[in-house]
Amino acid sequence: MNCPKCNAVIANENINIQKDIAKCDLCNHVFTISEIVAPKIKFDPNLPPEGTWYTNDFETTIVGSTTRSKAAFFLVPFMMVWSGFSLGGIYGTQIISGKFNPIFALFGIPFVIGTFVLGAYVIMTIAGKIEITYNNEGGKIFTGVGKIGFTKSFLWKDINTIEESLSNMKSGSSNYYQINLIGQKRISFGSGLSDERRYYIMSVLRNHLKNKR
């Protein structure tokens, strides 16, 4: 099997028949096996994989996915230990002694910021979601927990293509991928999604963009 993007040969260990997903080591392109071996098979958005959802009332479409991950079992205790030692060591000692050290306090600011960033990521692995709500004009991409999060808006007329790429987020030796709406500007999201969930959402959006054309 060859990569549809760069035509490189795909290694056997990068082919998952059950999930219908393959990955190219050369250009990092992730694609479905069916689009190569059976390109005439039509993608069905009404068959979402586990952890994703899809509704369409002919005016508004909602497609989304949970960002819950088993990584939370490792990240939660790690954050508690890391934050406890770093913040406790820097600020806890000052509180206990009753003496404020401004230089020591300033030194701890990066650890405070790191705790907030790590904490937000951990919360997303426990109860986060990514949900796209759109109609024929455009839509909104929500990333967060419940109703708390941030939203990105887009118009279909400004979108030329939908692709995926490596994101800036990285954990150890693991790389994360994101979905990109590319046109007048680049709108990126979905770096916390699994390959299967990310591909499903990207396929739903690509289908809509293709049908509009």
Key features of this structure:
single chain, 213 residues, alpha+beta, 3 domains, five-stranded antiparallel sheet, three-stranded antiparallel sheet, 5 helices, 11 strands, 34% helix
In short:
The chain is of the alpha+beta class and about 210 residues long. It is about 35% helix and about 30% strand. A hairpin with a 2-residue loop joins strand 10 and strand 11 (about 185-190).
Question: Could you characterize the architecture of this molecule?
Answer:
The protein is α+β, with helices and mostly antiparallel strands and 213 residues long. The protein folds into three domains: 1-41, no CATH class; 44-67 and 129-212, PH-domain like (Roll), CATH 2.30.29; 72-124, no CATH class. The protein is built from five helices and eleven strands, in the order βββαββαααββββββα. The protein has helices at 34-37, 72-97, 102-107, 109-127, 195-212; strands spanning 15-16, 21-23, 30-32, 52-56, 61-66, 129-134, 138-145, 148-155, 159-171, 174-183, 186-189. The chain has a five-stranded antiparallel sheet with strand order 4-5-6-7-8. It is elongated, with a radius of gyration of 21 Å. It starts with 14 loop residues before the first strand and ends with a helix. The mean pLDDT is 82.
